[in-house]
Amino acid sequence: MTWLRRLSITARITIGSLVVATLFGLVAVVVIRVGVASILHNATNTLLNNDVTAPAASVESNPAGPFDLPGGGQELAVVDADGDILASTLPESLEDRIPRLLALGPSPSTISINGNTYDVLVRSVQTTAGEMHVIAARNDETTSLILDRLTLALLVGALVLILGFGAASWLLARTALRPVSRMREQADRIAGSERSGSGDPEGLLTVGPAQDELSELATTLNDLIRRLRASADRERQMVSDASHELRTPLAVLRGQLELAELDAGDADALLDDIRSSHSTALRLGQLANNLLELSRIEAGPSSGRIDWRTLVDELTDAIDRARLLVSSDEDARPISVDFDYDPKRRPDPESRVALSPTDFGRILDNLLGNAITAIRGQKEGAGAEDVVSASLHVEARSVVLTVHDSGPGMPEEFIPVALDRFTRADGARTSTSGGSGGLGLAIVAALAGAAGGDVRLANAPSGGLVATVRLPLVRA
């Protein structure tokens, strides 16, 4: 059957239709022949009964004869109790086998003699002269001829119908698959335009008005095209962002290394150049890691699932890390890092957030780190008390994380673009050293989006920035 797989779909549909039509045609011919044969057989039996009725009545009333047997092709015989033929219009081949015919019984029977087939009916009649018999016979040649001609006509008709059915199947298959051919040609044009770079970014396959399998296929392929384009756009954006963001620190690193080469004779200056180069290299590594992480997040939805208990554990761990970050710099202004959650209000035990514990911890680290950086970047004495607080609470169908700091907040015109990659606001939240290189909030937004949630930023009336992350709950 390997050769069949090499044929086109149209050819396979046509061949399959021909096979099915042939089987149905043969079955129909057989059924019709059997039905007509049964009808003819019943008709012959009826005629035989009609043939013997009048002679049997005549024999019963006048057993001595004479017996007036009808002609017109009716083959009859009257036989006495001793088996002698009193009157007959039977052919000689049947008259020679009268004892055999008498043994057939009262039901219609079929007998073959010298290549001829006869339907025979024997009726016994009680008379004053004893039991007599009336034999009626009909040659089956006419019935066989009718059946043969009918079978030939049925076979010819079935052949014509099969050929017509095959042609119709081929035309219907071609017509049904024509949209597929157009879809393939359109896909080739889209692929060609994508390779040449001159394609329409909105070019998609045409979805027909009918809600059928082809429309569903076109819709699925369009979704695939959109995902592939989005993936290609992410890759291009990543390369563009990387080349843009890495250009400056690479230039700085190259300059620092050149200075280190010039300061080769001065140990202290050389050490300062090496430390500066090391700091720049760390920033480059962190920036590259953030780019790769952001690309991974945007590549697809998260496959993690964490429950309420794990969310609380990640919150307390992130608070501990933020406190260590604050205490690691003894010269910086002190910052109080607090957290809050309601232990009595919990979601359904079967509910989960579609994030891994690591991703949720990263959201917390980025928001808390961003808040600490903002507070440290503002002018001394700007606030009476520097505080970063995080709260986690449950709503009807979601978990809400809120991080509030006492920093300088954000310019109102910057908030709508704050979640975009490589965007920085002027002032205290601009990180000129270390940090996430403008990717921290973008990573938070990408992680929340992968879980089906969102991030909102707003300046608090009392000062500082409030970051609200809403993560929907899903069934385990």
Describe the structure.
There is one protein chain. With 476 residues, the protein is an alpha+beta fold. It is 54% helix and 16% strand. It is built from 10 helices and 11 strands. It has helices at 2-5, 9-61, 92-95, 98-102, 141-196, 213-262, 267-298, 308-327, 357-377, 440-450; strands at residues 75-79, 85-88, 109-113, 116-127, 130-139, 336-341, 351-353, 387-394, 398-405, 454-459, 465-475. Strands 6, 7, 8, 9, 10 and 11 form a 6-stranded mixed beta sheet that branches. A hairpin with a 5-residue loop joins strand 1 (75-79) and strand 2. Helix 2 (9-61) runs antiparallel to helix 5 (141-196), helix 6 (213-262) runs antiparallel to helix 7 (267-298) and helix 8 (308-327) runs parallel beside helix 9 (357-377). The longest helix is centred in the middle third of the chain and has 56 residues, at 141-196. It is rod-shaped, with a radius of gyration of 50 Å. 24% of the residues are buried.
User: How much is the average pLDDT?
Assistant: 82
Structural class: alpha+beta
* General form: rod-shaped
The total of helices stands at 10
Percentage of β-strand residues: 15-25%
Oligomeric state as shown: single chain
Main pleated sheet: 6 strands, mixed
Task: Give the N-to-C terminal Cα separation.
Answer: 47 Å
- Return the string of H and E elements: HHEEHHEEEHHHHEEHEEHEE
- The residue fraction in helices comes out at 40-55%
Rg over CA atoms: 50 Å
Report the uncertain regions.
Answer: 427-435
Q: How many DSSP E strands?
A: 11
Question: How does the SSE layout of this entry go?
Answer:
Blueprint: H1 2-5, H2 9-61, E1 75-79, E2 85-88, H3 92-95, H4 98-102, E3 109-113, E4 116-127, E5 130-139, H5 141-196, H6 213-262, H7 267-298, H8 308-327, E6 336-341, E7 351-353, H9 357-377, E8 387-394, E9 398-405, H10 440-450, E10 454-459, E11 465-475
Parallel strand pairs: 6-8
Antiparallel strand pairs: 1-2, 1-5, 3-4, 4-5, 7-11, 8-9, 9-11, 10-11
Helix pairs in contact: 2-5, 6-7, 7-10, 8-9, 9-10
